């Protein structure tokens, strides 16, 4: 049975990823940080729709200690795929952003995904085929003012995955970044209608992406036939910021 961990399963993009992968026959660990009921309800709904697959909610705060991260991973069974769809941002100038917030963004978006990759490697490389996907961003390719630290974490994921892909290339584990432009999810909920309209005007395709526009590509990369694609950052941005 093919099995994946979706970190950030309660988020806008993670939720679509879970739906598409479940439909494609995957069993899933659905990760949450703070919304246990939401992860549990989603797992129950998918289990009813796809009774021959397993759907298990799991909880982890990416601000946890190294010992807690290890304990979390030790409790998991081997998987074919890990998708890192968690993440946070904070709209602020570097000069006024709290340093504790900088630590949090770097930790949740970059440091802990790298540490979890290290801890999960053994559970991935023993499979016939395996995949890691990190959710990057167009801002990892072009830095965005007021999201400088966020941009740095996303650029970091692109270079980390490129380097790590080369380390594990002989094991059938591929490592890629999917880098969306603007996606209609709770991450953008704080923006006014006016700001959303301004950004939409800048996007050549003329609209924000939906979660499904991103999860489609997760499904493609998780297909065993996608094994020749590794170390890449693929921008899914409707032509924006290329
Ligand atoms: N939305 C966009 O326009 C956009 C554009 C480019 C890239 N991305 C990237 O795509 C990914 C998903 O974004 P999204 O829009 O789906 O975000 P979202 O709807 O805000 O969801 C964020 C997810 O991150 C999890 N999370 C937050 N704090 C955490 C922590 N301390 N430890 C572990 N998990 C934590 C949340 O878990 P709980 O809800 O359970 O707390 C939630 O599942 C992110 O990496 C984001 O940077 C998004």
From TrEMBL:
InterPro entries listed in its UniProt record: NAD(P)-bd_dom_sf, Sc_DH/Rdtase_CS, SDR, SDR_fam
Pfam families xrefs: adh_short
Family recorded in the similarity comment: Belongs to the short-chain dehydrogenases/reductases (SDR) family.
Protein name in the entry: 3-oxoacyl-[acyl-carrier-protein] reductase
Organism: Lactobacillus intestinalis DSM 6629
Taxonomic placement: Bacteria, Bacillati, Bacillota, Bacilli, Lactobacillales
